[in-house]
Design brief:
- The chain is an alpha+beta fold.
- About 15% of the residues lie in helices and about 35% in strands.
- The strands form two sheets. Strands 1, 2, 3, 4, 5 and 7 form a six-stranded antiparallel beta sheet that branches. Strands 6, 8, 9, 10, 11 and 12 form a six-stranded antiparallel beta sheet that branches.
- A hairpin with a 4-residue loop joins strand 8 and strand 9.
- Helix 1 packs parallel to helix 3 and helix 2 crosses helix 3.
- The longest helix is centred in the first third of the chain and has 14 residues.
- It is globular.
- It comes from Potamilus streckersoni.
- This is MD-2-related lipid-recognition domain-containing protein.
- Keywords: Signal.
């Protein structure tokens, strides 16, 4: 079997974090009778035809399976360039159940999410208006921009997912629109690119907030915005009724090769400049400094970064942490 490709990894993260804000990557589910982790590992390996599903992914999917029955939503039927699920699966969202169908296609690799409105939705509309109200739902299409040379994947989508209004004497009057803004960045190979400057920029862009070398962390950054805009009178323009960020988080899901940590050697006290304190980046990241309320790094009590790094050929114009 092939190794875990970028698109499969990204797809699993999209599913996991699109439907939950409270699951922590890598959280332990051991000892829970309702979740069979071995069975989930086997299921994912079978569907995506890979053996090396990261343990963190398995545990996230396991947590979601326990609460949302996520495994029923995985696309398992192949048709041409796409994988389809058996049908719609039910996802509990606030006060009602939303039905969704997930499809993944290749060339280009694309994730499509089709929604079906709850059958009892119109029952919540006042009886006199019920026959006049229409709600059109549109699918969310997420195209994965994979940069194999750099070892990163980016997904950016700004999609209108629904339009609601009134049908009066054959004329449709739009009253509200819903938008879904999605951003996902996945760093899945810390050994790329071969260019030292670019590789360092990617590898130092994540910090788990704990002492230690994070240069080999395989990480993600995710932000999801949800907007409901209604038409206002007298301007007949759309303004936010409810616009908020529902998910904004980052984390790491696996560790890359230990060789990625060797890039720390690029930051040594000998490379100090007037604008950068003589404590090296490894020291600042591996010891408890003043920013955390603890004792400062050895020999750096009075030396902190106060400007951009002036180190041509390495990380020029990078703001010092």
């Amino acid at each position: 079997m092939e190794s875990l490709d970028w698109y499969k990894l990204s797809f699993l993260f999209i599913i996991a974090y699109l439907h939950t804000q409270t699951i922590t990557v890598g959280q332990s589910l051991e000892g829970k009778d309702t979740v069979n982790m071995a069975a989930i590992q086997s299921k994912l390996s079978s569907v995506f035809e890979v053996n090396d599903i990261p343990d963190g992914i398995v545990k996230v999917v396991g947590a979601l399976e326990s609460s949302l029955h996520l495994l029923n939503c995985l696309p398992i039927q192949k048709s041409d360039n796409c994988y389809h699920p058996n049908g719609y699966c039910e996802i509990d969202v606030n006060d009602f159940t939303l039905q969704a169908k997930l499809t993944i296609c290749k060339n280009p690799w694309t994730l499509r999410i089709d929604f079906k409105l709850p059958q009892d939705l119109k029952k919540r509309i006042p009886g006199i208006l019920r026959p006049l109200v229409f709600i059109d739902v549109e699918p969310i299409v997420l195209t994965l921009d994979n940069n194999k040379a750099d070892g990163v994947t980016t997904i950016i989508s700004n999609s209108k997912i629904a339009t609601a209004g009134l049908n009066i004497f054959g004329f449709s009057i739009n009253a509200a629109k819903a938008y879904f803004n999605f951003y996902l960045f996945v760093r899945w190979d810390c050994t790329k690119p071969s260019d030292n400057v670019k590789r360092l920029k990617y590898n130092i862009d994540y910090d788990d907030g704990k002492p230690g070398n994070d240069m080999n962390k395989l990480y993600y950054k995710l932000k999801i915005d949800y907007e409901i805009k209604t038409k206002r009178i007298p301007c007949f323009c759309y303004k936010c009724k409810r616009c908020e960020t529902i998910v904004e988080k980052q984390g790491h899901f696996a560790d890359g090769p230990e060789s990625c940590k060797s890039d720390w050697s690029e930051w040594s006290p000998s490379s100090c400049t007037f604008f950068m304190g003589c404590e090296s980046l490894p020291q600042r990241r591996t010891c408890v400094g003043q920013s955390t309320g603890g004792p400062p790094c050895p020999g750096s009590a009075e030396r902190i970064c106060s400007g951009p790094v002036r180190n041509p050929g390495r990380l020029e114009n990078q703001v010092c942490p």
